[in-house]
Amino acid sequence: MSKAPALTAFRRIVVKVGSSLLVDHEAGSLKREWLTSLAADIASLHKDGRDILVVSSGAIALARATLKLPRGALKLEEAQAAAAIGQIALARSWSESLSAHGIAAGQVLLTLGDTEERRRYLNARSTVDKLLEWHSVPVINENDTVATTEIRYGDNDRLAARVATMMSADLLVLLSDIDGLYDKPPTPGSGAQLVPVVPRITPEIEAMAGASGSELSRGGMVTKIEAGKIATTAGTHMVIASGRVMNPLRAIIDGGPCTWFLTPANPVTARKKWIAGSLEPRGVLLVDAGAVRALQLGKSLLPAGVTKVEGTFSRGDAVIVRGPDGHEVARGLVAYDAEDAEKIKRRTSADVMLILGYTGRTEIIHRDDLVMGGG
Ligand code: GLU
Fold first, then answer.
1. Closest residue by CA, ligand 1 atom 6
2. Where are the beta strands (DSSP E) in the chain?
3. CATH number for the domain including 126?
4. Whose CA is nearest to atom 2 of ligand 1?
5. For residue range 51-64, what is the model confidence (pLDDT) as tens digits?
């Protein structure tokens, strides 16, 4: 049987926290003591140089508790208004808990499109990248106040998986009120066994997930398995563990109950495979010999090295990069529309702002969005 990895072996970790862990519905308040213990775990992983991102639910549940809204489903506009009230308190609590450890928290509210549509995906990714570069901890939630049914995730398990793949995280931790996947519904006397490691999500694994969830969180085991599929396909490992204990990340490190979903890939190669293989190129950038050398050294493509722009593409589309002899050198996601790329080709990065009238990216293709070799 495959072995469970060590949590401390990962460099970029997304921690998803379910509503029922953070909100005490009876008391109508946030579970501060628990949040303090989680923040301490996050701080100790962060201190060792890891990137930590939090995806936190709880906005709607918190508002429900504060406003004493009746149980049961909320209408869309009620949920949106509740999120507006709850999110402020939620973000403040995260900010306070993390700042006690000298960590700045940055609130990021996303909708489905921000992680799916490529142009916006690039925007969200560079913002979150910057937060990580500043050693802050992004605290992410769905933008429930503006998200209508069509543009909603509706559950933060999948949002967290998308964030993990968007940011090429190597681990996604789902903390909820269940300690992992059981081989049958874990009702008393059922003799159900916790599955410690899932090497691959098969139909049998999906069948085990059943369809139950707790009252506060929308995500039952089914959405967790969905999240597992998104994550493991993109090269991100996932672990489901209970957040019903103090210091829940420490508990995983100490060998507490949990289920690991393993991926055979790694996030960088999975992303590069996606760029090289699955995306239809929309245009071509011809580059000079100096740019080819820079790319071969693993650098980004700068506007100065581009000699000709072909095709009609939008920012975020895949394009082919060809050398002076017309040979394909690389493929990548371009940071400018064709029209703007045309204007800034052969120009220095310093000129770009003057030409376009806005400060764009320095790179026309960032090295993380570039795959060498081509076909
Ligand atoms: N975004 C929702 C909130 O913060 C939670 C969705 C979920 O629990 O999956 O209230």
1. 155
2. 12-17, 23-24, 29-30, 51-56, 105-110, 137-142, 171-176, 197-198, 237-242, 258-261, 283-287, 306-311, 318-322, 328-333, 370-372
3. 3.40.1160.10
4. 57
5. 999 999 999 999 99
